[in-house]
Design brief:
The complex is a heterodimer of chains A (432) and B (300). Chain A has 432 residues and is of the alpha+beta class. Chain A has twelve helices and 17 strands. In chain A, helix 2 crosses helix 3 and helix 2 packs across helix 4. Chain A starts with 6 loop residues before the first helix and ends with a strand. Chain B folds into two domains: 168 residues, no CATH class; 106 residues, no CATH class. The chains are: A alpha+beta (432), B mainly alpha (300).
């Protein structure tokens, strides 16, 4: 419902007499920054409720403050070099200032909702995966103890009957369990197939084929090692992998045994239809030993997500290095950062207090006291001094503002009030 | 060597102020301006004397923007080093804020130049006067204070120039000078009485919200930004205040002898967002119109 009040109420509200004395800018600013005590705050609020002028001042001031707090740096990484605002000295020296700089509660809300949604989706995915893993509760997991070392052994009598020595009763129970599990898994795999894009399924199938080959080779090796002395081991409890929906995670058994890749092999050995997308290889079980996630990038398989993330990071670093940030330091020095967290002073040989710096692509303009204006066309590696001069008049005031729309067209303002404009990248200037 | 402003420097610092000055001397940056601990305490005593009685509380000291306050005071004392720091830190942002407030580069520059002159102790006509920085008392940040002063100057300038607009200019702008229209509607005195009584009973914050939303036509987002709450909170409070106000007025009208139907009819009028409503007669302000800086071509 849209709020509304009667016209008579509105008229009377407008006719409220405003207090004679307006609050000082210091009080109004304290109100905007919420740094007043309760008495002062009530006094200011009472005045604001009846003074349209002061409300106007408060809204204008807070509007300007809001625009100044826009996250320009976030844009910097995407659009190239830009000015990096000088951190206010008070933010580091005064606790109150640091408090003011904290994100506001409403900003929290902006992030809290998607974050909560992400957590819920992630939790659901985990639970779902656990449920699938339960389908493969492995009554047929057999471990072959070979010479005191634990190895993951194939568990399917139908495919590897010679590796196991099960009693007929155990074999029947295993076969029955496996049959039931296969039916359940097939249903889930079908659902999964429908939900995933065909391209992803194809990529997953290719990867699965590779994994299967490796796993089968491993199994064959294990069987050979196990030999006729292999004995059946009681079923072990399934252990789901750490949360990773992709097929990029294998498990590493870190008992006294050597490392064994036990990803797809486990499922294949249990009669799982490994032609399914991902082959269900985000599910696994293993020996009752400590299991930790291991990026598959160690192997020669297709690069996993982490490897891909590494490439992204490298690209970002290169991007940052190619697009330096600029700022004016606290003492008026010109500084450049190339994304490594360190700031290097530029033009430090010039005894100039800089006031403004701006960039357009690789063009850098910096200005300071005494009409000093410098220009670099190579991202700040080399600077040339530019003389602001027109009709015999030279600029001697401090350059306080530089604005360039393009590399060619821009303007410079000095504290004497003069504005100098150029349309040819600084070759010539006109005083306005 | 710079000295602190003399107008208030005669104030004796209390023990609490002296202790505070000693504890925060390093952070204050007073040393670089040649001010010792005693000088800092005296400066603070002057500031709190300016603030008024009962302002020197522990909470006030805790919230004090000491470093910026010291900088402002030393600027007032014409310390060159302080002015260099002030210019480096605030000049750019001051001009930016002026552009954003004026919504126009030329006006913004003029506005910032005017304040700059006032900070440098010079008025537009060159008359020497005290720097405005002496009125910064450290309740909020110095940058915020500069923005507020700019906004205040802008409002003052607008009011002044509006009154100076000549009839010719107004005619050129197309303004029509129609005869005053007498409002023929008869308002029931009981309605006015009930409304006035209920408005007076409103809490301050409710009155502020209603005025900002219905009179100034601020958006929920703007109000929320000033109050630092979520828009939905403002919306909820507004709705609750306006619904409660209507109910209470209706109840008063019924208590004053109206039937329920008569009360509803008396309160029924145009929509609050109806542009034809003229509520700007009182106080000579443009209430009922968009904020003045939005009336230009840059209206949102």
């Amino acid at each position: 419902m849209k709020p509304g009040i009667s016209k008579s109420a509105r008229d009377l509200l407008a006719k409220q007499p405003a207090a004679e004395l307006h609050p000082s800018p210091d009080l109004l600013n304290g109100y905007v920054e919420q740094s007043l005590n309760s008495t002062e705050n009530t006094k200011v609020l009472t005045h604001l409720s009846s003074c349209a002028d002061c409300r106007e001042v408060v809204f204008l001031a807070s509007g300007a403050a809001e625009e100044e707090m826009q996250p320009e740096l976030l844009v910097a990484a995407q659009t190239g070099p830009t000015l990096e605002p000088v951190p206010a000295a008070t933010a580091s020296t005064h606790p109150r200032a640091a408090e003011t700089a904290k994100p506001q509660p409403r900003n929290w809300w902006k992030w809290a909702t998607p974050l909560a949604a992400l957590v819920i989706v992630g939790s659901t995915a985990l639970i779902e995966r656990d449920r699938i893993a339960e389908l493969f509760s492995l009554p047929s997991t057999e471990m072959a103890n070979v010479g005191g070392t634990m190895k993951v052994a194939p568990a399917t009598p139908a495919t590897q009957p010679q590796a196991l020595s099960l009693s007929p009763k155990q074999a029947r129970k295993v076969a029955a369990d496996r049959s039931a599990n296969d039916v359940k898994l097939q249903a889930r795999v079908d659902q999964s197939k429908m939900a995933k894009p065909a391209a992803k399924a194809q990529a997953g199938a290719k990867e699965d084929a590779l994994r299967r080959k490796m796993s089968e080779a491993q199994i064959a090796s294990n069987l050979q090692n196990a030999g006729a002395n292999a004995t059946a081991i009681p079923p072990s409890k399934p252990t789901p992998l750490p949360p990773s929906p992709s097929a990029s995670t294998a498990v590493e058994v870190t008992s006294a045994a050597p490392l064994v890749q036990a990803d797809n092999a486990d499922l294949a050995a249990n009669g799982v239809n490994s032609a399914a997308p991902n082959g269900g290889n985000d599910l696994t079980y293993s020996a009752p030993a400590t299991i930790k996630p291991q990026p598959l990038a160690k192997s020669s398989l297709v690069a996993n997500d982490q490897a891909a993330a590494g490439v992204t990071t490298m690209q970002l670093t290169r991007h940052q290095a190619a697009n330096p940030h600029w700022r004016i330091g606290r003492d008026g020095q010109l500084e450049r950062s190339t994304g490594t967290g360190t700031w290097a002073q530029k033009l430090d040989s010039e005894e100039i207090t800089f006031h403004a710096v701006t960039t357009v692509g690789s063009e850098v303009w910096a200005g300071g006291n005494g009409g000093a204006l410098f220009h670099s066309s190579d991202g700040g590696d080399h600077f040339n001094k530019v003389v602001l001069s027109a009709n015999g008049l030279n600029e001697s005031g401090a350059i306080v503002s530089i604005h360039f729309d393009t590399a060619q067209q821009g303007s410079v303002t000095s504290d004497s009030g003069a504005t100098w404009a150029t349309t040819d990248g600084g070759q010539s200037w006109s005083r306005q | 060597m710079a000295s602190v402003p003399t107008s208030r420097s005669g104030q004796a610092a209390s023990a609490a102020l002296q202790a505070y000055a000693a504890a925060h001397y390093v952070d204050s940056g007073a040393e670089q301006f040649g001010i010792d601990v005693a000088g800092l305490a005296t400066m603070l005593a002057g500031v709190f004397a300016q603030r008024g009685a009962d302002s020197e509380s522990e909470a006030a000291l805790e919230a004090l923007h000491l470093e910026e306050l010291v900088l402002a005071r030393t600027c007032v004392a014409a310390n060159e080093r302080a002015w260099e720091i002030f210019l480096t830190r605030y000049r750019g942002s001051m001009y930016e804020a002026a552009y954003k407030i004026a919504h126009d580069e030329a006006s913004g520059r003029a506005l910032a130049d005017s304040l700059y002159a006032a900070l440098y102790c010079l008025s537009d006509d060159g008359e020497v006067r005290a720097s405005k920085l002496q009125y910064y008392l450290g309740r909020g940040s110095l940058a915020g204070w500069l923005r507020t002063v700019l906004a205040q100057e802008y409002v003052n300038h607008y009011r002044r120039t509006r009154r100076e607009t000549s009839l010719e200019a107004a005619v050129e702008e197309g303004k029509q000078f129609a005869a005053n229209q007498v409002d023929s509607r008869q308002t029931d005195p009981r309605l006015e009485t009930a409304t006035a009584a209920e408005l007076a009973a409103l809490e301050v914050e409710e009155r502020y919200l209603l005025a900002a939303y219905f009179l100034d036509r601020r958006t929920l987002a703007e109000i929320a930004r000033v109050l630092r709450v979520h828009e939905s909170t403002v919306s909820r409070k507004l709705e609750r205040a306006s619904v409660a106000l209507r109910k209470r007025i209706r109840k008063r009208l019924i208590a004053a002898g109206m039937s329920a139907r008569q009360a509803d009819e008396a309160m029924q009028d145009a929509d609050v967002r109806d542009l034809q409503i003229d509520v700007g007669e009182s106080l000579g302000q443009e209430r009922g119109q968009p904020a003045f800086y939005k009336q230009s071509g840059e209206a949102e």
